[in-house]
Design brief:
Layout (H helix, E strand, L loop, with lengths): L1 H5 L9 H37 L7 H9 L5 H35 L11 H16 L4 H25 L6 H25 L1 H11 L8 H28 L3 H6 L4 H23 L5 H13 L3 H25 L8 H19 L6
Helix pairs in contact: 2-4, 2-13, 3-4, 4-9, 4-11, 4-12, 4-13, 5-6, 5-7, 5-8, 5-11, 6-7, 6-11, 7-8, 9-11, 12-13, 12-14, 13-14
Length: 358
């Protein structure tokens, strides 16, 4: 017994379980870094393909000329005014939705959490329709900020209602408050749409989910909100790791549960609100990206958030590319393509693996 107790101190082989952990940990870290490099390559490839491919075929020389030596030809206009703006928006919005989905699943402890669950998409949609119905605003630059305000208001309402419940903002109270907010906002939206044809047309265009027809200036305008949201998400990751062990354990480790949830909800609000306001309610991005990320990284949210951002960006961009190619000379919007792709992929993940416990 004395030899066994003194073996670890003298540098000799310790218990088998400890040896196994020491061997597995470096291997997992190497796999995470290797996966990160692969994802960066995939994102780069999808960005290049998004600029090069579309409903109108262009040669590589035309694409190169449009990117670096634009002279106003038809190919230059297509590259500069259409493909580059939608590629940039798909990259930014996809990354935001991927990270927001991971945060939602972590804070609600619900493996199928998405912006619909917390009523954020419904709040944005209600304000978009309200801006048309009450104020007569029909331009994209006008109602996109009302959509952002609606997403912010919906998130704050859900968090306040969840916090006011007995026991505070628990995963159950947040989910219930989100379901109630979604029902309320959807009913109000339906009421306005029935009485106003113009509001119906605007809402129908917005709710399908699209990155086309958005100027590059819009992406630059929403970028600061997304950068701030990503910064809050990075700061929230360590506390979220502790919360995944249970609130009592997190408090014992010195984590301020209320502050951690507030920071997480602020990040979710900024990321989801900005992306939904600019593109409409694009589904399945945060859901699928988070499950794929967790499969490769394990339960560490510091890695899950990074993987989810890259996966969300590549999924959104790839879906936009496919939407342009499968319906030439027209196109299918990215929200439709993600539903067609995301549903089978998610069913495959569910059938292949046991349900995730958060």
């Amino acid at each position: 017994m004395i030899e066994a107790l003194s073996a670890p101190r003298s540098g000799k082989a310790g218990p088998p379980g400890r040896q196994q952990k020491r061997q597995i940990a470096p291997e997992r870290v190497r796999r995470r870094w290797a996966g990160l490099l692969v994802l960066l390559a995939v994102v780069t490839l999808t960005l290049l393909l998004s600029v090069a491919l579309g409903t109108k075929p262009l040669s590589l020389s035309q694409v190169w000329h449009g990117l670096w030596f634009s002279t106003g030809t038809e190919g230059d206009v297509i590259i500069r005014s259409l493909r580059v703006p939608r590629t940039a928006l798909a990259l930014v919005a996809g990354a935001a939705l991927g990270v927001a989905g991971a945060l939602m699943q972590g804070h609600t402890r619900n493996p199928i959490a998405d912006p619909v669950l917390l009523g954020i998409s419904a709040g944005a949609g209600m304000c978009v329709v309200g801006s048309v119905f009450l104020l007569g605003i029909t331009s994209l630059y006008g109602y996109v900020w009302f959509g952002f305000a609606g997403a912010l208001g919906a998130s704050m309402l859900v968090f306040l209602v969840g916090t006011a419940a007995r026991g505070g903002a628990t995963p159950v109270t947040l989910a219930l408050a989100g379901a109630a907010a979604h029902a309320l906002f959807t009913a109000l939206t339906a009421g306005m749409v029935i009485f106003d044809r113009q509001a119906l047309d605007t809402y129908r265009f917005w709710t399908v989910g699209s990155v086309s027809g958005r100027p590059l200036e819009l992406t630059w305008q929403i970028l600061p909100f997304i950068v701030l949201g990503l910064g809050l998400a990075a700061a929230n990751a360590p506390g979220l790791n502790a919360l995944s062990l249970g609130e009592d354990v997190a408090r014992a480790l010195g984590v301020r549960v209320g502050t951690t949830r507030a920071v997480g909800m602020a990040a979710i609000t900024l990321l989801t609100g900005t992306a939904v306001a600019a593109c409409g309610p694009i589904g399945f991005v945060g859901l699928v990206a988070t499950h794929i990320a967790r499969y490769f990284t394990g339960p560490d949210y510091r890695w899950i958030l990074v993987y989810a951002a890259l996966l969300g960006a590549s999924l959104t961009t790839a879906a936009d590319i496919l939407g342009r190619l499968v319906a030439r000379p027209g196109e299918l919007q990215v929200g439709i393509m993600l539903a067609l792709i995301g549903a089978p992929v998610f069913i495959y993940l569910v059938r292949r693996r046991k349900p995730v416990r958060l």
